[in-house]
Amino acid sequence: MIAIIDYDAGNLKSVEKALLFLGQECRITRDPKEILAADKVILPGVGAFGEAMARIRQYGLDRVIRAVAEEGKPFLGICLGLQLLFEGSEESGGVEGLHILDGSILRIPEEPGLKIPHIGWNSLHLENGGRLFEGVPEGSFVYFVHSYYLKARQEGIVKASAEYGVTIHASVEQGNVFACQFHPEKSSGVGLRILQNFAQQFSPGLCT
Question: Which of 10, 18, 55, 143 is the most exposed place for a label (fewest CB within 10 A)?
Answer without folding.
Answer: 10
